[in-house]
Amino acid sequence: MASVAALGLLAGCSGAAGADGDKLTVVSTTEILADLVQHVGGDLVTTSSLVPAGGDPHSYEPTPADAKRVARADVTFTNHLLLEPQSLIKTIDANAPEGSPNVSLAEAAESYGAHVIPLVENIGLDVLWLGLRVRGTGKARGATRTSSVQLRATEVEGPGRLIAYLTESLGQPDRYFDSSDGVGPDDVTTLPPAAHTHLNWAFTKPGIYRLTLAAGLEVGDGKPVQQLGSGTFTFAVGVESRGVAPAAGGPATVLDDGHTDLTVDLDSGRLLAFSDVRKVGDAQADVPAGQVVIDVPNKALVSVPDDPRFSFLGKPGGQVHQLPQAVLGKHVHGEIDPHLWEDVANAKAYVQLIRDTLISADRGNEQTYRDNAATYLRELDELDEYVRAEVASIPADRRQLITTHDAFGYLADAYGMTVAGFVVPNPAQEPSVDQVRKLSETIRNLEVPAVFVEPNLAQRASVLTQVAKDQNVAVCLLYGDSFDDNARSYVAMMRHNAEELKRCLGGTR
């Protein structure tokens, strides 16, 4: 990554607007954004996507060639709201020519009428769902969207080993904290401001564990890391949690269900446990690190997979207590669902913002951009009506979405559907009987005739497709983040989604 960021020095050498003949060079992060830009820019722009065809924008890692492309761009567009990984955002911000438009569409489109909704995560696990979070903006500390917050393990006490690791999209583990040989410089991870991520938390022996984390803010520009606070979290592993004393003494708050994140408050510097399902009055619960006891019960016992990549957990077939990450892959995101384009009205807001951005970079062709945008907006109006009519033809009790990825909240919200669940299991381990049971019950109880996978995520859908087969329901395709050979434009993608929903969920003619 250092080699990519270093190419920021090329930014000052970028050609002026119109370097490609009389055309603007526009670089976008995703194919969907590039397609919207092309419709507005027409023959006046050359546009491309950094994330390749069929790629996952959540996990794409930029290359030095990407940095060079950004450095030659007259205009750059990102979606952001933490859709793209921070490494990609850093590459763009470090290499975009000074003074050129560099627009985060999802974050700026609200002023054009875009509607944003919270990213709701309500996977019903039978143990605590535990992640890491950064809360607050840190503006008073000089933080920006390219800043990084370090979370470092400085001490681990316990009868066995504590290992916090991420299982990536193709099953490759990435260890964040591992006390096997003590804790040191490698036991650190970073998050952007206002982000959170999911992890597996494994413990090799039952007993009481204490994990001390220290936080620091890196704002870049060669400035030293600003040291924030530290805190010690207590885990009760395979033992009765109610009698365990927290690290700071005094009364303990036992966390044993729902979704909780070990959290850095970037504005105050405090470390705490933030739970988005546990209520204290009408407020969401904040518990100081030293008062927390995290319950890791015996039902969290899992077998170590017979896969050499997971040998750090122990011998194959051996058992460890583990709180699962539940969502496969590196899943760093914020509080707002970033998939705005699944509501066509939001895509219209993007188009208007793209229009005004291109005009600001090329005022001599303002009328052409306005005309192109007006033509495309009329096409999007027709698309919105088409999607609405197709979904409306589905019986109301069948408008249920079960998918492999939480990318369809806007589609459901805009067109009268319900997201009944999404499941992305860990391919390195056999799914639990309880996980399969809950998914089967959801499909059976709702009497859904189909579940949905994304073409570029089909390899992650083994449990969903197997359960669908067992329940005798169809497996259908919806497009979320990217195109393929069967859908090469935003309009084609959304028309397919509408038609597939109608076909698979029993819409009437």
Automatic annotation (TrEMBL):
GO terms for molecular function: metal ion binding. It holds the Pfam family ZnuA. One of its GO terms (biological process) is cell adhesion. Its main location: other. Gene3D superfamilies: Nitrogenase molybdenum iron protein domain. One of its GO terms (cellular component) is cell envelope. Residues 1-19 form the signal peptide. Transmembrane segments: none annotated. Belongs to the bacterial solute-binding protein 9 family. This is Anchored repeat ABC transporter substrate-binding protein. It comes from Kribbella italica.
